[in-house]
């Protein structure tokens, strides 16, 4: 990309472009007058003879100025967007020894949730506007993998009748275990590209999901991920404010209009807002804090959960990679984030230069001495478009938006 005045330095805020360009344009539009100076008095003699011509010239100059400003703003936005997407970032490999692709999963594995017993739920087959998708034109599925087994295999769960399975398009998932041990699976679903939350009961013996309920609500739009916090209470992230063509403008202007919603049968409310693109959401081991990934701002918000379910921001952990989904290591409490090292490669998919994968671990997220390390990184030769990583007993599963899934013994 050709630089223009004020090309931003990586890591520096971009307004430089505007700061450099605007005064320059303003100065150019008023020849002879330094930018910001008071207008000089018009010489009387010249004003009357050439007023019409001068007015025309001024009109053109104004139009040119406006055009210039618009182009500069546009250019600035493009540079900013490329920067935000890490468009020029290449991946340094970090690959644990014992990793292999999971045979049964070929068409994405958007989200993963592992039960304390080692049973992993994996949502697959998501079709989402703007994302590459190579899945055959068939409904999405939920797979189960038993991580206690020596060589775990993924097996598709049967899904009961009672909702439109043909339109099943699963996105974020979250499990909830009732006191009596019953396991519920909550799934963000996008039938016809709308958003619903489907609640299933998991039947371990039958390896099946019984559909119990579909939740729809005015505030539950453009849903991405979900974390269940009670029998019928959950937090969910909205990743776009607009659901129509305005979403392009939204991304272009980088409006921070997305939010986190709290849902319960008696109350639905926005509990945190101001995210550029709120994405993965999960809860700390002690269940006092909620972690929210903002994929576009490349950070994780640590939020404190209050009695009335409101969230307040405690801190923001800035990363150099686009954070998609979050999970918590059940033994250490560390946050694991499935990340997109370069979003431009993800959105402009090119098999010759595919998007890579990256998983980062954040230790001591609540203290000032947090530590961020890379657990896995690959340039796309093995795994493309990682969106989530989840750990159980030194075994890690890495899921992707549209590609394969990886199993690693750590
Ligand atoms: C994982 O990432 C995908 C991609 O955006 C998202 O839709 C899903 O909700 C996320 N799930 C998790 C683990 O939070
Ligand atoms: C990715 O890395 C591998 C080695 O790890 C290398 O052989 C391959 O050429 C790289 N691919 C791209 C697209 O850079
Ligand atoms: Ca999830
Ligand atoms: Ca996500």
Automatic annotation (TrEMBL):
<dbReference type="GO" id="GO:0046872">
    <property type="term" value="F:metal ion binding"/>
</dbReference>
<feature type="binding site">
    <location>
        <position position="279"/>
    </location>
    <ligand>
        <name>Ca(2+)</name>
    </ligand>
</feature>
<keyword id="KW-0106">Calcium</keyword>
<dbReference type="GO" id="GO:0004064">
    <property type="term" value="F:arylesterase activity"/>
</dbReference>
<dbReference type="Pfam" id="PF01731">
    <property type="entry name" value="Arylesterase"/>
</dbReference>
<dbReference type="InterPro" id="IPR002640">
    <property type="entry name" value="Arylesterase"/>
</dbReference>
<keyword id="KW-1015">Disulfide bond</keyword>
<feature type="active site" description="Proton acceptor">
    <location>
        <position position="171"/>
    </location>
</feature>
<comment type="similarity">
    <text>Belongs to the paraoxonase family.</text>
</comment>
<feature type="glycosylation site" description="N-linked (GlcNAc...) asparagine">
    <location>
        <position position="379"/>
    </location>
</feature>
<dbReference type="InterPro" id="IPR051288">
    <property type="entry name" value="Serum_paraoxonase/arylesterase"/>
</dbReference>
<feature type="binding site">
    <location>
        <position position="324"/>
    </location>
    <ligand>
        <name>Ca(2+)</name>
    </ligand>
</feature>
<feature type="binding site">
    <location>
        <position position="325"/>
    </location>
    <ligand>
        <name>Ca(2+)</name>
    </ligand>
</feature>
<feature type="binding site">
    <location>
        <position position="224"/>
    </location>
    <ligand>
        <name>Ca(2+)</name>
    </ligand>
</feature>
<dbReference type="GO" id="GO:0009636">
    <property type="term" value="P:response to toxic substance"/>
</dbReference>
<feature type="binding site">
    <location>
        <position position="173"/>
    </location>
    <ligand>
        <name>Ca(2+)</name>
    </ligand>
</feature>
<feature type="binding site">
    <location>
        <position position="225"/>
    </location>
    <ligand>
        <name>Ca(2+)</name>
    </ligand>
</feature>
<dbReference type="GO" id="GO:0005615">
    <property type="term" value="C:extracellular space"/>
</dbReference>
<dbReference type="GO" id="GO:0102007">
    <property type="term" value="F:acyl-L-homoserine-lactone lactonohydrolase activity"/>
</dbReference>
<keyword id="KW-0325">Glycoprotein</keyword>
<feature type="binding site">
    <location>
        <position position="110"/>
    </location>
    <ligand>
        <name>Ca(2+)</name>
    </ligand>
</feature>
<feature type="glycosylation site" description="N-linked (GlcNAc...) asparagine">
    <location>
        <position position="325"/>
    </location>
</feature>
<feature type="disulfide bond" description="In form B">
    <location>
        <begin position="99"/>
        <end position="408"/>
    </location>
</feature>
<keyword id="KW-0732">Signal</keyword>
<keyword id="KW-0378">Hydrolase</keyword>
<feature type="binding site">
    <location>
        <position position="111"/>
    </location>
    <ligand>
        <name>Ca(2+)</name>
    </ligand>
</feature>
<protein>
    <recommendedName>
        <fullName>Paraoxonase</fullName>
        <ecNumber>3.1.1.2</ecNumber>
    </recommendedName>
</protein>
<keyword id="KW-0479">Metal-binding</keyword>
<dbReference type="InterPro" id="IPR011042">
    <property type="entry name" value="6-blade_b-propeller_TolB-like"/>
</dbReference>
